[in-house]
Amino acid sequence: MRTSEKPSSRAPANADRPVPPGTLSGPASRKLPVSPRERKPALAALAVLLILGGALATTLLVLRSGDRVSAIQIVQQVGTGQPIAQTAMREVQIADTGIGYVPYAERARVAENFARVTLLPGTLLTREMVLSSSEELGPGKAQVGLALKPGQLPGTLRSGDRVQVVHVPGRGGDSQAAAGRILAQSALVHSVGSSGRNGSAGQITIIVDATISPTVVTYAARGEIALAELPGAR
C-alpha cells in the first residue's frame, strides 16, 4: 500500500513577518544604489557670465559699427610738398574705426599746410600725411612757368607729378647737344593749366632749384624745353 506525501500547507514561520526597512529581497537586492546628481553652482554661474559677456560684446560691436564720423577725402592729386587746396577735398562719412582721419571741420586749417607724400584721388587724409612747412616750396626753390607745344610734354601730366626737364636744342643749336641735356632730374609739377586757344600750347608750372631756374627760363623762351614724366618718382 502506497502512501503519498502531501505538500505541507503550513507557511514558513517568517512569511507573515514584516520586512525591516532598508532590507531588499529578491531581484531588487541586485540593483546598485544610484547616487544623486551633484550640482555645481560655480560652473553654472560661469556659463551664465560667458553668455552675457558674449551678448554684450556683440551689442557693442553692432553699436560701434553704426558710429559715423565726417572725414576728408582727396579728390584731386596733390604732389609732395604742395599745399592742399580746399578744392582738392570733400566730405565723406566713414565708420569710426579709431584711425586718426582728419575731420572735415578742419579743412581750412589743412589748406594752410602741405602734403608730406603725393596724395592720390580717393585718399582718406590722416594727420601723418600733412606737413606744416614744405621743402619743395621753401628757400632755394623757384617756380618756373612754361608754355609747351604738343610733343614737348606728356598729355597726362597732373599736379604733383615728377618730370625731367630736358634741353632740346633747335635746328641751329650745338650739334654735340642734339641728344638733349637734362637740366633737372626730378622737378615737381606745381600746376597744369588748360591749353591755349588753338590747343597748341600747354601751360605748366614746375618747381626747380633756384640755381638752374635762369637756364630753364632762357631755353623755355626759345622753345627748347621738353618734359619727360617720371611715374615711379611720385
Automatic annotation (TrEMBL):
Keyword vocabulary terms for this entry: Membrane, Transmembrane, Transmembrane helix
* Source organism, top-level taxon: Bacteria
Where does the sequence pass through the membrane?
Answer: 42-63
Region (Disordered), start-end ranges = 1-36
Q: What is the protein's given name?
A: SAF domain-containing protein
Q: Which organism is it from?
A: Planomonospora parontospora subsp. parontospora
